[in-house]
């Protein structure tokens, strides 16, 4: 068995003083550590808030850039579509005009032959005119097969002097 010595069981005043000094020092160290931690957390919070603000701004700018690119692409697409539609309408118009000109030419040819035929079968008109001062003299000769008709007329023209 071991006996307890009075030195180990009793607290000496120097030890208590030392312990108090250690507790005061450790308390000061604890307070300083807490304060440094608070300052560090505060500075980290400020840095995180500033980074968050910059990130938010950058995201907003990316959205604007994306919107500008999308709008530009949409305008280019619209211009290409408009140009395509315009070309198609011009081509259709050209084809219709070509068809119309062919038909018009055919109608003219038919009319020429019809008029030539009707003139040779029905008759013809011959005439001349003469303008003297303010009068128009017209002489027409209309032949319809076996019948002939002559017309002479003098028309006064309203000319201001």
TrEMBL record:
Record-linked InterPro entries: IQ_motif_EF-hand-BS, IQCF, P-loop_NTPase
Pfam families: IQ
Gene Ontology molecular function terms on file: calmodulin binding
SMART domains: IQ
Name of the protein this chain belongs to: IQ motif containing F5
Top-rank taxon: Eukaryota
Keywords: Repeat
Keyword Chloroplast: no
Signal peptide: none
PROSITE patterns assigned: IQ (PS50096)
């Amino acid at each position: 068995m071991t006996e307890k010595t009075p030195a180990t069981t009793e607290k000496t005043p120097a030890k208590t003083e030392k312990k108090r000094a250690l507790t005061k020092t450790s308390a000061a160290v604890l307070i300083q550590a807490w304060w440094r931690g608070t300052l560090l957390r505060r500075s980290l919070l400020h840095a995180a808030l500033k980074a968050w603000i910059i990130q938010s701004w950058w995201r907003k700018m990316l959205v604007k850039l994306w919107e500008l690119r999308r709008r530009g692409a949409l305008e280019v697409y619209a211009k290409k579509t408009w140009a395509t539609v315009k070309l198609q309408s011009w081509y259709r118009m050209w084809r219709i005009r070509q068809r119309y000109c062919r038909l018009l030419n055919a109608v003219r040819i038919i009319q020429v032959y019809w008029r030539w035929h009707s003139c040779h079968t029905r008759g013809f008109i011959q005439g001349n005119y003469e303008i003297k001062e303010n009068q128009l003299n017209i002489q027409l000769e209309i032949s319809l097969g076996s019948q002939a008709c002559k017309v002479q007329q003098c028309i006064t023209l309203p000319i201001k002097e």
